[in-house]
Batch of 3 targets.
Target 1
Amino acid sequence: MNKQNEPLHRASDLLSSIGNPIRMQILLALDSGEACVCHLEAHLGLRQAYLSQQLMILRGKKIITARRMGKFIYYRLVNPEILGIIQAAGRASGEKALKFPRKSLSNCACPKCDVE
């Protein structure tokens, strides 16, 4: 790959990484701040193992970051501008705005979610 095409390859890699609908939902969920796996699990209705695989991909691409607090891991966006890309893709596909559906957190056990 020549140096001139490097930015295109990085942009393509980013778009490929966030192009999965589940990963988009995760990123939209992180719009309101950091969230733990149990929080994302309760909102998305996905198994923890599958969710962890998607989070690992996003972390590997440095799209999200994580911090541990006791037995809980909290995820957040590295660069919130990523949400603008997702929203622009939604508008380009005919959607007015992509929103993350909020659900009850009754299944979420972390201390942060108990407060919400």
Target 2
Amino acid sequence: MNSRRIAIVVVALVAAVAVGGIALYATFLAGDNVAELGLDTPAPSAAVATPSAAVSSAVPSTAAPGSSAATGDLAGPWTVVSGVAGYRVRETFLQQNAETDAVGRTEDVTGSLTVDGEAGSLRLASTQVVVEMTTLKSDRDRRDAQLRGRGIQSDTFPTSTFDLATPVALPADFGSTDVVVALPGKLTLHGVVKDVTIEAQARVEADGTVVVAGSLPIVFADYGIEAPNVAGIIAVQDNGTMEFRVVFAKG
């Protein structure tokens, strides 16, 4: 093969790699551009389907106190009636960070909490929230398929659970305004149990439901999670964020 043909072959290979790289970037690393979950995030399906419509959790509440708060009837058992939870992680292509985070979420969230005490001196006595990891979905089917067998390995570890470790005193103005509460507990992820403290926002809505939203930084190695890496070309950073927004109803 003469030098001219060799040059043509080299140029063709370079072009193929470039086109393939662009295709891989478009497939995996375009990012989801989804706003973080917060008290004012729209309904879960809207938050996933139309991320641009999501509202930042920094927006102050203008809702009137809920009926439960107005009657001082917050003590008792509460059950999850809706919720959304998931991950947020930055991917890389040839060691270059993507422009936005990859975000996967599920609405398969169950659980309960119990409040005891009286108005002005309430405490969160117990909490358990369970997330179905097998239904996590992002805007990339290939990414979702990868995570079923790699990374969080949802086919092997189908659920993640948070259990409150000790009762927590609630602010005296809970029910009349948004509050921030530190929740110490045990997080089970990828089959590993770790002590964590989640800083969460909470609000009693006008319809009497309680909304709790928050996030927690996750270092994958702490939970035995091997960050997915495709031949050093496509990878994810070694850390991410777990986030959630859960609605509880009395009873």
Target 3
Amino acid sequence: MPEVNKKILSAVLFAKTVHRDQVRKYTFEPYFVHLEEVARILERYRAPDEVVMAGYLHDTIEDTDTTREKLEQEFGSYVAHLVWEVTDQSIFLPEPRPNQKARKAIDRVHSASASYWGQSIKYADLISNTASIVQHDKDFAVVYLKEKGALLEVMKGGHPDLLVECMDIYQQALMEV
């Protein structure tokens, strides 16, 4: 039996706890399913443990009351930094927030400046989300894919093979909507 990676297990348990009441849109399965899918994609590309941990935690700042400081305290500065790199910054804008187009532009600039592994986490997130959105909501998929296409245009600095997979899924999704 393989040895349990205690660092990754701690991120799994934390993510399960803070996302415990959340479900995925459309499928209503536990939100953790998405987080696990992102982490597993990263594992396929031999991402270091800290990156896999950030994969499990990538939505904690956006979708829970978890702060960057809390992640740093629990998992160290590198994991917290990776999660911060993939966190949409537009959520921190004061009310009234700009329109969707302006918010996505802010988030795109932030994602474009992310590190190799930060962008790789974002690719894995896009891979996981695209299939579900295209399958369950074709109308929203048109908007989503336009936004993701613009994001992929400025995010070329991650794992090259993961980027190829992400682009392939993006192109396939465009043909389905």
